[in-house]
Amino acid sequence: MAGWAGWAGWAGWAGWAGWAGWAGWGGGGNGGGGGMPGVPLLTDALIKSRGGTVPATPAGALLSPKDYFDNPERMKGWEPAIRQHIFLYEAQSRMIFETDKASRVATLSHISLDAPKPKSQGRYQKHPIIRMTKPKNTDCKSQFALVESWAKIREDRASECLAQLIPQTPFWSAVANLQPTRTRWTNELIDVSLGIASIAAMRFKHALDVPRPIAYSPNIQPMVPTPEHGSLPSGHATEAFVAACILSKLSYPRKLDSRSLAAHKSLRDQLLTQASRIAINRTVAGVHYPMDSVAGAMLGTTIADYVEYLCQGTGWQDRSFEVLDPKLDFYQLVHGFEFVGQPAQNPTPASSLPYNESPLKWLWTKAKAEW
Fold first, then answer.
1. Which end of the chain is more exposed for a tag (fewer CB within 10 A), N or C?
2. How far apart are CA 292 and CA 238, in angstroms?
3. Nearest one of 6, 5, 2, 13 to 235, comparing CA atoms
């Protein structure tokens, strides 16, 4: 039974980490850290090699490495896993998550690092990124019939549902031609963006604690294992829309001629169609309601905008999720890749905030240059 744990799927964003690769030069059985630990033969060889190459007398003056202090250009010298830690810290340290039990609303906000505010307002100013209201029990029951209706195409979608349990990377690559070498910085930016999205999605899942469809009836009989965390927002939908939106932003053409814009629209439409299909497949598989995908698509789209803000200072539009019509399906809500009839109330325009440059700007510049 322990094997089922690998099918939860939500942690799939970590899949890009396997592309680092270079640390394997030490050969089989190494314990990481450049390949030397755990390889006695190589360790012994390096000791003897030093003895045969270092002169008996001191070599003279020492070299003088460049002196850096918090310089983004130094990022290229770190291994990918270390950069990821730095980027995730930059993002997470600027966000705050709050809940209001009375209204059953959870809010993810950005903390601006501008001048301190009056004591009555607290030290820092908060700017909402996205709010989510917990669906009612009756909303879940109303969505139940939709989950059952999507089960009719399980046989047709079975291979996709199973393949998308692991990282969705092949599905994005098939559309956008992502490669380990050609798009290495794009891959890394997507990896970081998915990390930020996963942190946000899991915090919302815990706060909202929406039961999975199988909790209401054994008739669902999911075709894949049901993950052991909340249903809303859908992690797969969140990841899919983050990746689709980040790739759409990066690939936006520099030359705004009709041919370039038409090519970009084709790429963008296919990326967002793929994201929608990945989201719907989780309902087909029986582990998500359509409303979970709506919430995930909103979260993914908003996080992509927020990542662009962290990288470029462009601002974002904060969104609000609330179920207004529980009988609407995700497929009906997505039209032209704008949320027509979206359960949002009074969305505010793009934020105008003081921008504090972070190392993420360096990564965005590198990724954008690949397109």
1. N
2. 10
3. 13
Residue labelled with tokens 């008996």: 56
**How many Cβ atoms are within 10 Å of 242's Cβ, its own excluded?**
30
Rounded Cα–Cα distance for residues 293 and 284 (Å)? 12
Torsion of CA 180, 300, 310, 22, to 10 degrees: -20
| pLDDT tens track for 82-139 | 999 999 998 988 899 999 999 999 999 998 866 555 554 556 788 899 999 999 999 9
Return contacts of 340-349, CB within 8 angstroms, 24+ apart.
Answer: 342/294, 342/298, 343/294, 344/298, 344/319, 344/320, 345/320, 346/320, 347/317, 347/318, 347/319, 347/320, 348/128, 348/317, 348/318, 349/317
Q: Phi/psi of residue 4, each to 5°?
A: -65, -25
Whole-angstrom distance, CA of residue 306 vs CA of residue 318: 9
3-state secondary structure of 111: strand
For residue 291, give the nearest of 155, 130, 138 by alpha carbon: 138
3-class secondary structure, 339: strand
DSSP label at residue 218: T
Residues 25-47 as b/e (b if ≥16 CB within 10 A, e otherwise) read: ebeeebeeeebbeebeebeeeee
Residues 6+ apart with CB under 8 A from 339: 294, 297, 298, 333
For 344, list phi and psi in degrees, rounded to 5.
-125, 145
The SS3 of residue 96 is strand
Distance CA 54, CA 280 (A): 63
Closest CA to 151 of 281, 324, 327: 281
Q: How far is the C-alpha of 239 from the C-alpha of 296, rounded, in Å? A: 8
Main-chain dihedrals φ then ψ at residue 236, nearest 5 degrees? -65, -45
Which backbone phi and psi does 55 adopt, to 5 degrees?
-65, 155
Residues in contact with 60: Cβ distance below 8 Å, sequence separation at least 6, in sequence order: none
Greatest mean pLDDT range, 1-10, 38-47, 52-61, 107-116: 38-47
